[in-house]
Every structure is written in C-alpha cells, then in structure tokens.
Amino acid sequence: MDATTGIPPAVTEETAAFWSAAQEGRLVVEQCTACGATSFPPRGICRSCRGRETSTAEITDRGVVYSFTVNHQRWLPDLEVPYAMVLVEFPAHPGVRVTGRLRGCPAEETRIGMLVDIGFEPGPGGQAIPSFIAAGADA
Amino acid sequence: MGTEHLERRVVVSGVGQSQIGRQVDRSGLQLTLDAITAAVADAGLRLDDIDGLATFPGGGAANLPGYANGNLYEVQDALGLRTTWRQGIVEGLALPFYGTAQAVATGQARHAVIWRTVKEGSAARNAGGRPAYGSTKPVAEGPLAWLLPVGMLSPVCQVAPYAMRYMHEYGATREQLGWIPVTQRAHAALNPDAVYRTPLTLEAYLESRMISTPMCLYDCDVPADGATAIVVSAIETAGDLRAPVRIEAMAGVVEGRPSWDQWEDMGRVGHGAARAMWERTDLRPADVDVAQLYDGFTIEVVWWLEALGFCSTGEAADFVDGGSRISLGGELPLNTWGGQLSGGRLHAGFGHTAEAVRQLRGEAGERQVDGAQVVALGNVGGFEAGAALLTRW
Predict the structure, then answer these.
(1) B140: which of B114, B151, B338, B371 is 20 to 30 A away, CA to CA?
(2) Which residues have a Cβ under 8 Å from the Cβ of A53 and sit 6 or more positions away?
(3) Domain map (residue ranges) of chain A
(4) Which residue ranges of chain B lie beneath pLDDT 50?
C-alpha cells in the first residue's frame, strides 16, 4: 500500500525535530527540561508546567491502539484505498497520542487495544509519516 | 459569557435562506444577498436597520472548495449599509448567533445579521467527487499537519475514530445509529427545501458504501449549495419585530485538548458546553419540545443527546433505536428539517437555528411540532461546541 499520495506537512520551528527524526525512522516527542513531562504535538512549551525550555525524547516502546478508522474513500486521484489509520498511545508517556497508518495486518483486522510497534513509511512530498506495525497481540 | 444573562437582552428576530440544493447555479454572493434580504424581511425590519454584519468563516478561510462565500465587505458594499460592528469568524463559532448576540447585548450593534454560505455541492461536482479536506492548500498547516499527511483526508476520517471508540466502549451498533439518518429522512420528506426527500430504509443504510469505518455514506452530511442568514436584535426593539424568539440560555465551552486527534475521551463530547448552558437556566431537559442537534455525522447527534442530558452517557444508541422517540410525535423530535444529513450541509448550526426559530413561531409547515415552546440547539461536533435553548416569545 503506497502512502505517498496526499498532502505533506508544513514543517515549523516547533515541528522540525519531529519530522526530521521521522525521516530517520525515529519517534521523538517534546520533553520538558524542567519537569520531564513528554507531550505531543510539540508546542515549544511544556503542557504540564508551562516551562519554555524543551528538548526531545525518543519513544521506542510498543504503543496501544486507542482508536482507529479504515478509510475507503478515494479523496484524491491515485489515492490507494482502503487503508487503516490508528491513534496510538504509550502507557509510559501520558499525554502522547500519535496518529499514523497501520501495516502488518489486513486493514479489517485493526482493533482497539492492539499492540503496535513504532514505524514510519514514505509519505506525501518525500516526508516520512508515522506508520505503525501490528505486533500481533493485544495490550 | 459571564454569569449575567447577556443572551436575554437580545432576540433572534429573523431567519432567511436562499434556494438550497445539491447544486444551485448562483454565485456565493448572490445566495448570500438572497438570504440576508429574506432574513431582514422575516424580522420585520428594513435593510437600513442593520448595523452589524458577521459571517463564518471570515478571512476567506477555506479548507474545502466552496467552503467560504459572501465576503463581508462585498456584502456591506452591495447593500449600502453603515455598520458599527463586524466580525469574521474562523475559530470560536460556538453557535451561529454567539458573537452576534454578545455584540448586540453589549450595545455594539442594534440589529446584526450573520450568514453562512456554502457552495460545497457545486465544488464537489466540479471536482468530480468530494475533494480532500485541506486540498485547497499545498501543505497541511497547524493541527492538520498531523492528520492530512497520514491520510486523514476528510473530516469523516477524523470523526470516525470517535465513533469507533464510542461503539467499543458502550456497545452501540450500526443497526442502532442508522435510525438517525432514517428518521431524519422521514422529516426531510416534509421539508420542501430539503436536498434529499425520498424515504431511506435501515436496510439501505446498512448496505451503503463505507466511507471511513464505521461511518458509511448515510452517516455523513450532504454537500450542498445555499445560504442562511440570521438576524439578532436588541430586546428593546421587540415591538418593531414580526416574530422574535428568545435566547433562554447559551454557552460555548472549549475544554480538554482542542484537537480532533488529541481529544482525551472520544466517547464523550460536548458535555462542558451543555453543562454550562444548563447552569444558565431553570429549564431542564424534560422541558425541551424539539432538538436541533448538529449532524455533520451521525455520531455527533449521539454526543449531543448525551451531553444535553436527554439520555445518559452510553445510552444514546438505545434512545434512537427504532426511531420512535426522535420522530415527529415522539418525545424528542430530532432535526425536524432533515438535518444536514438530508436537508443539506448548511454547516455550523445555521440550518438548525433557522429550523428552531420556525418551530417556535409555528411556521414549520407540515413538520411543525404542536405547541413547541422550547428548542434545544447543540452545535458543532468535537472540541468546538455550543449549546443553547431558544424559547417562544
């Protein structure tokens, strides 16, 4: 399933770290230098203590599917359908929920509570996008 | 709004609509002028009485072709008005009349009109199908940067995970949700201005093509062309008005993470706005005669039924099952004009508000709810949420 048809993200001061790590296949989120809280999407400010000094933290854990949808509609010419998209949470990182595509199982087998591994794949405009991989188990 | 009941210093004095259809071959400006002139006449006012103008979305914001029409300054110029207050709203439209009511209540204008004009039906036809949300721009900006690139290319993709989560948590089924569009289609049959009026069966709903699971074709509203204008007037002008309607209470609360994908509890939406609204009135859910609840998608009706307290959290699917409670003649007639699912995507609660006013005046024709005294409005699904009660004069 090709995911390159679509609309690429605008890359900003806040989001550049995320998108450049994505090109390397790594999931990074914003982490507060003062209180250590992790947050997504990056806002350049800590959502827990409002500290303005932030760095990045890489997440490597398995995630859990909070919810999902399988899109069947061809919204753009050449868009390959159907494909599953999952909203993934990480129990060790409250406040982080990342939306991406899902690979590794038929779209119709996507379930809430599935465990997924972090991954990326080529997306629109040459930008790698989150693309989780079904781990074959439930949380 | 504060604790003082500013909304009771104003009335909804007029509503007007242009021709509405899947495609109406008039410009957005002409549809807008048709709706405004109709709404002002409906209020019993003259155009020169209007000193406030507002529109959604202002600033030409358009994430879909045909989304934004009727430029505020072109409208003022076309009508030759003098205004003391103007507002183009991109964000913060809790209710169509929210900012307008606040402006009139605080003396910024005496008679203000707000309009919403859509040409999304024509735009979809011209594009050969419903285009991707955000496809009017080369890159996805702001919150859309996390949605469009991964393939959430339409609001239906963004709302579908809410429906999936709701069904997972509360055991709701498509066989139950289907009664929302089926019942609203029956109401649309009684509305000559509705886009789709032929009967819809539950079987046809269940067999219709899937758009983004679990939302199928008939869970989604219908792109349309048309304009709706609403006039809000200072209450001291009531004697000059043909048929004003009261705003008993209104509230617009955004709490939680204001983002389609980050909203914490996707099984519960709109509760903050609804709670704040009920705190501003002595009326209770049992006093409501008619509900006009935003229905960009069926799941949004579910949210509002629960948030506004017509049933408990997790019980809306049972509430709509079979359709009897939400039909004309039932305990809570729902979206009596057909809603956006059958009446057309007039968007952002404008069609719902027009119908609420008509019901309270007894001007809803064949779909009139006898003796309607109180109408509940729940507007916009998701984090942006507004709730109101409109009552008979």
Answers:
(1) B114
(2) A32, A33, A34
(3) 16-138
(4) none
pLDDT along chain A (139 residues), means of 10: 95 97 98 96 95 97 98 95 98 94 97 98 98 93
A97 touches chain B (CB under 8 A): yes
B150, B164, B212 ranked by CB distance to A129: nearest: B150
ipTM here: 0.98
Judge residue A89's burial from the number of C-beta atoms within 10 Å of its C-beta, 0-12 exposed, 13-18 middle, 19 or more buried. middle
φ, ψ for residue B26 (rounded to 5)? -130, 155
The shortest CB-CB distance from A15 to any of B145, B151, B165 is to: B145
Contact B261 A99 (CB under 8 A): yes
On whether any CB of chain A is under 8 Å from the CB of B149, the answer is: yes
pLDDT in the model for residue B383: 87
Burial (Cβ within 10 Å: 0-12, 13-18, ≥19) of residue B33? buried
**Cβ neighbours of A72 in B, within 8 Å:** 209-213
Predicted pLDDT at B2? 54
Architecture (CATH level 2) of domain B159-223+247-392: 3-Layer(aba) Sandwich (3.40)
Q: Do B262 and A41 touch (CB under 8 A)?
A: yes
List CB contacts (< 8 A) between B145 and chain A.
Answer: 9-10, 12, 15, 41
Tell me what pLDDT residue B243 has. 98
Partners of B156 in beta bridges: none
Packing angle, helices B298-307 and B271-278, rounded to 10 = 40
Provide, as residue numbers in chain B, all residues whose Cβ is less than 8 Å from the Cβ of A7: 132, 134-135, 137-140, 144, 148-149, 153
Token output for B316: 């809306």
**What secondary structure letter does DSSP report for A11?**
P
How distant is the Cα of A71 from the closest Cα of chain B, in angstroms? 4
Contacts 24+ apart (CB under 8 A), A27-31: A27/A58, A27/A59, A27/A60, A27/A98, A27/A118, A27/A120, A27/A130, A28/A56, A28/A57, A28/A58, A28/A59, A29/A56, A29/A57, A29/A59, A29/A93, A29/A96, A30/A54, A30/A55, A30/A56, A30/A57, A31/A55, A31/A56, A31/A57
Domain ranges of chain B: 6-126+224-240, 159-223+247-392
**Cβ pair B218, B191 in contact under 8 A:** no
Q: What pLDDT, on a 0 to 100 scale, did the predictor assign at position B131? A: 82
* Cβ within 8 Å, pair A71-B157: yes
List the beta bridge partners of residue B21: B225
What is the predicted pLDDT for the residue at B51? 98
CATH no. for B6-126+224-240: 3.40.47.10
